[in-house]
Amino acid sequence: MENRNKNDKRFYFWQQWLFYSSLLFACAGLVLAFYGNNPIFEPYHQLLASNFFNRNTMPEETHKLYTFIMGPMGATISGSYLLLAFIARYPFKKKERWSRNAIVAAFGVWFIVDSIVSVYYGILFQALVLHLFISVPQKALPLIFTWKEFEN
Questions:
Q1: Model pTM score
Q2: Cβ(17)–Cβ(137) below 8 Å
Q3: For residue 126, what is the DSSP state?
Q4: 5-27: pLDDT as tens digits
Q5: Which long-range contacts (C-beta less than 8 Å, at least 24 apart) are formed by 124-128?
Q6: 97-120 and 63-87 are packed helices; what angle lies between their axes, rounded to 10 degrees?
């Protein structure tokens, strides 16, 4: 009985982690959509400018397009993480296996495609740092530590 209670507490921690971190990422997506050219994202912008244009800032003629692209990208990030938050809040919390599998499938495809494109274009920071320090703690750890809870 004590072991079950311990497992329930661990599961609840990771379920809450997934829910609240997803809400945080959904909010970050909105910031990116409406204010993507801000000082918080400046190091990333500099990395892209350096990689694609061999300079420290984006060329002036690309500013409007880049700012526009931040809108749909931020909206997509916000929407996908809001969906993840709802999955974490309801079916994942009920330990419905499909919810775990949906998270693995959806973010697995994203991870693979994003990594391939990032490596292809030489944006190793995105492929390594963002995935290892954001994706793994945010999505992979909750899935790893709760995986067996969905086996019943």
A1: 0.91
A2: no
A3: I
A4: 888 999 999 999 999 999 999 99
A5: 125/44, 125/47
A6: 160
